[in-house]
Amino acid sequence: METLAAAPRRAKRRKPGAPKSPEQEGGANISPLVPATSAPYSSTPGAGGDESHIQDRPPGAEAEEDGVDRISRLPDAILGEVISLLATKDAARTRILATRWRHLWRSAPLNLDGGDLLTIDVVSRILYAHRAPGRRFRFPAQHLQYYPAIVDAWLRSPALDNLQKIDCFATDGLKLPPQPASTFRFSSSLCVATFSQCHLSDDITLALQFPRLKKLALQRVIISENSLHSIIAASPVLECLLLRRFFGCRCVRINSSCLTSIGVSAAYDRTMAYLEEFIVEDAPLP
């Protein structure tokens, strides 16, 4: 018996109506609290999103885009202060940044670290060429023993006029040579001073005044009781005093209206007077 083929079914035409819900489409469930007319934020500015939500450019972005060097536009005085905070080698390298920076280091307050440089000739050349007043000068105490004339010439340089900080830092050495008298031409401007491995003689120190000195360190120095008491009395704003391995004093008496910090470390040498008494008579110590 012959089998008849099944007639194809006609597809039913759907009536146009409301769009299917997200649940029917299998999409994510959107909270009914969000209005149907709300458009999602666009991650691309200007792509239909609200322009008020576009994040502002970070500070300095305009300068980066137009290639303007804002730092170099600062006054010389401000740039000089920035340079004076750098290590000696880094400060000297600022001359190669741009034409604008070429003259700044020589006219900035001098922060000269002689211990950071390779030879004493470099220190001499810097002091000869620098035009601005000195801010800080640091050099190894051993130069007092081996190059006393050179150190004296350094200290007399106009580049160190009105020096605020001097650091003659301790190094290896057995002798304690005299500190040059030229060191104390800065006594009226010094705020911080460190003297190491030297002899501070009475004929120089007894006549000194240190109206601005706030921090004083004496490390492995020879100094008499009279000289030490005279320096403390001549420093009306002295706040910190460090006496480390010093000789020449048997008894130290502290009288100061501002001294708030004292460090003492005595040394023994049978050929010199050494500390036996340390008395704080009047000082606002904590």
Automatic annotation (TrEMBL):
CDD domains: F-box_AtFBL13-like. Pfam families: F-box, LRR_At5g56370. SUPFAM superfamilies: F-box domain. Residues 151-284 form the F-box/LRR-repeat protein 15/At3g58940/PEG3-like LRR domain. Residues 71-111 form the F-box domain. Residues 1-65 are annotated as: Disordered. InterPro entries: F-box-like_dom_sf, F-box_AtFBL13-like, F-box_dom, F-box_dom-containing, LRR_dom_sf, LRR_FXL15/At3g58940/PEG3-like. PANTHER family: OS07G0277500 PROTEIN, PTHR32141. This is F-box domain-containing protein. It comes from Miscanthus lutarioriparius.
